[in-house]
Design brief:
Length: 205
């Protein structure tokens, strides 16, 4: 068991439940398949390009959700990767077959909500499991999911960062003198589900 700094991301199809009500089973299955194919390829491309190695990340999909945990021992590399992944996923998804067809039919594209959080989690393995690989666990993961849930309230990119992830991104910008073509808009202080006090969150725009 090891306490580890990590950047934690969740990505979800916006209004997925509504689409499941109006689409046929085959159409909804195609939507989920395209989502999983696009996001997994995008994440894989960024991680390979930034030279992440086994034991520095976890990612996977379950239905309409993608989770990505980055813990390379370089928090600046991890937050930069999360920002790159966010943009890459958004671009690839808007150019997906399902969204191109919707635009041709004068329908709005299906959007994604992205939540990013930086915090501490426990890297742990459980001897009772067949898979003895170490995995992240802890409150920070639940917090990251709550951030993603609030991303759907955004007005710009719907890529939302927690206070700690925002602070780390700004440190990276100053540290590397990055000239980003985006900034961060603070959203109204909000109470996240299951969290008693109000928190600050920031949306990329």
């Amino acid at each position: 068991m090891k306490k580890t700094e990590a950047v934690l991301m969740f990505v979800d199809i916006l209004n997925s439940a509504q689409f499941s009500d109006v689409l046929s089973l085959e159409e909804y299955d195609k939507l989920i398949f395209q989502f999983q194919d696009v996001v997994m390829q995008a994440v894989d491309d960024v991680l390979k390009n930034m030279k992440f190695t086994e034991g520095q990340f976890e990612f996977g999909t379950a239905g309409d959700e993608l989770k990505i945990f980055l813990y390379s021992d370089d928090k600046y590399k991890d937050i930069e990767a999360s920002i790159r992944i966010s943009f890459f996923i958004k671009l690839k998804w808007f150019d997906s077959e399902i969204n191109r067809l919707r635009i041709e039919e004068s329908k709005p594209p299906i959007d994604l909500a992205v939540g990013i959080h930086y915090g501490y989690a426990m890297l742990n393995s459980h001897p009772g499991r067949k898979d003895t690989k170490e995995n992240l666990e802890g409150y920070a993961i639940n917090f990251a999911k709550r951030i993603e849930s609030n991303a759907r309230e955004g007005k710009y990119s719907r890529i939302v960062l927690s206070q700690s992830a925002y602070a780390l991104a700004k440190q990276l910008q100053y540290k590397k003198n990055h000239k980003w073509y985006f900034d961060f808009a603070p959203l109204p202080q909000t109470i996240l589900k299951g969290i008693s006090e109000k928190v600050m969150i920031y949306e990329m725009r």
